[in-house]
Each structure stands twice: as structure tokens, then as C-alpha cells.
Amino acid sequence: MASDRATAIPRAALILGWLGVTPFAGFAMAIAAGWPRAADTGLRSLVLYGAVILSFMGGVQWGLALRPAADRANLASRLMISVLPAIAAWASLALLPMLAATGVLATAFALLLVYDIATVRRGLAPPWYTPLRAPLTAVVIVCLLIPMAVLVP
Hints:
With 153 residues, the protein is mainly alpha-helical. It is built from 6 helices and no strands.
């Protein structure tokens, strides 16, 4: 059982994590407001920002895989998995209409969360990572799904 100190989310991570969610919420609110220009700009901004953050989150897994204490037996597969979020982000930007991209990004964030939780359970990420990531990801997914609820007739 991890100690309270090990599971306590570092203050900087908590603050920066929620600040990182703020643009998702702002863009989703712009879309939900229903103003044509705000909705168009908000959708484009939501997808672009989502792609950047998804790529960043994959990079977190790359960094965890490179730690000296990391599981070297699975290094190649862990590194390959860590680049999948960037590929999904690129595909959502380059190959899909913006509205469809929000669904792809939401799915990718959910799948990455499942993988992140598995890395915590295997002791490859700090115990506080799941309590940080789960609520942040839940809000991000809701924000990414708002355009589908609002813009699809």
C-alpha cells in the first residue's frame, strides 16, 4: 500500500494540470454558445489544442520508459505505444473533418488513460499519477464530445 505522501499529487502538477484543461473548457463553451464564428473558431482551436496535448501525454509515457528504473524488457513496446498518441493527433488534424476529429481525440485520451493507469499499477509511474490524470481526462473527454452534442443536427 502506498503511503499518503506517495499518493499526494504534487501541487505544481495539480495546478498545471487544471490550467491545461482550461482551454478545453473555454473552446467547448464557445462551441456550446452557438455563435457561428465562435463555434467554428472554437472547434478548430479545440481540435488543435487537443492534438497538441494528446501528443504531450504520449511524450510522458516516452519519458517514463526512458527512466533508469524502467522495465527494459518491454522498452520497445512501451516506446511504440508512447508514439501512438502523436500519430492519432496527427491523423485527427490531417485526415479527418474537425467534428470527427473530436471523437478520435476523445477516444485516444480515454485509451491513453487506461494505459497510464496500467503503468501506475505496474509501478512504472508515480502513485499520484492516476488521481491526477483521471479527473483531468474526464473533463477533457467531455469537452471534446460537446461539439458532437451541439453541432450534429
